[in-house]
Design brief:
By secondary structure, this protein is an alpha/beta fold. The chain has one domain (3-231): Spore Coat Polysaccharide Biosynthesis Protein SpsA, Chain A, CATH 3.90.550.10. The protein has seven helices and nine strands. It has helices at residues 13-27, 44-51, 68-78, 98-105, 127-140, 173-180, 205-231, and strands at 3-9, 31-37, 57-61, 83-86, 110-114, 121-123, 154-157, 186-190, 192-194. The strands form two sheets. The chain has a seven-stranded mixed sheet with strand order 3-2-1-4-7-5-8, sandwiched between helices. A two-stranded parallel ribbon has the order 6-9. α1 links the parallel β1 and β2 (31-37). α1 (13-27) packs parallel to α2. The longest helix has 27 residues, at 205-231.
Length: 236
């Protein structure tokens, strides 16, 4: 099974230069890295283009800051693959877990790297951030069977995304896929989320407002889907 690793970037030159070789060490073959960059000013695109001479890497250069979720969608649309793995560029998502994600996506439709199953967790978060994260997860819990509803590190089969209209707001592309994609089987693999070592966080207050709007959209979508399935029980 060939996989495309989708990585959205914004000023991640220092991280992406280390991450791509680490991905290669983890996956070895039958993969491509698709970096979707939102017009970084720190030379991120130059680093990626240079690495593409030695590794299977594709760069999607976008004209400005258009958002993490839409970057992932553009990356998926730009590369046909049996499965897609979505991860951040800042090493908060450990590349060492990639082989396990790929191995499990051969069996399951959806594989989620989870902080909220036995063995998972976060490292170095202050109490305020833990509370905010827990509240965000609880707010989305009725929408999906996935426990770590806000995880951004996951793998999904390409077939599960066919004819699916992904329209996320903000940065929670994982939640959009967990709710809308046509998956049946899934598994959550434990991992420890660690804050970035280099660069600065892209999270701002506006991102949390977008999350609330995104949740509203997904609840409305779920209600409409439930009504449709009730009226048309023999259709998906």
């Amino acid at each position: 099974m060939n996989v495309a690793v989708i990585i959205p970037t914004l000023n991640e030159a220092e991280n992406i230069g280390k991450l791509i070789p680490s991905i290669h060490d983890a996956l070895k073959s039958d993969y491509i890295v698709v970096v979707v960059d939102d017009n970084s000013k720190d030379g991120t695109q130059d680093v990626v283009l240079n690495l593409s001479k030695s590794y299977p890497v594709k760069l999607i250069a976008r004209p400005g800051k258009l958002g993490l979720a839409s970057a992932v969608i553009d990356g998926i649309n730009a590369q046909q693959a049996d499965a897609y793995i979505v991860m951040d560029a800042d090493f908060s998502h450990p590349p060492e877990l990639l082989p396990e994600l790929r191995r499990n996506i051969e069996t399951y439709d959806l594989v989620v790297a989870s902080r909220h199953v036995k063995g998972g967790g976060v490292s170095g978060w202050p109490l305020k951030r833990r509370i905010i994260s827990s509240v965000a997860i609880l707010m989305a819990r009725p929408l999906t069977r996935v426990k770590d509803t806000t995880s951004g590190f996951f793998a999904i089969r390409g077939a599960c995304l066919k004819n699916v209209n992904l329209t996320p707001l903000g940065f929670k592309i994982g939640l959009e896929c967990f709710v809308k994609a046509n998956w049946d089987s899934y598994i959550e693999l434990p991992f420890i989320f660690t804050d970035r070592k280099y660069g600065s966080s892209k999270l701002r207050r506006g991102e949390f407002l977008a999350y609330i709007k995104h949740l509203s959209q997904l609840y409305l979508y779920s209600i409409k889907r439930a009504i449709y399935r009730h009226l048309h029980p023999h259709r998906k």
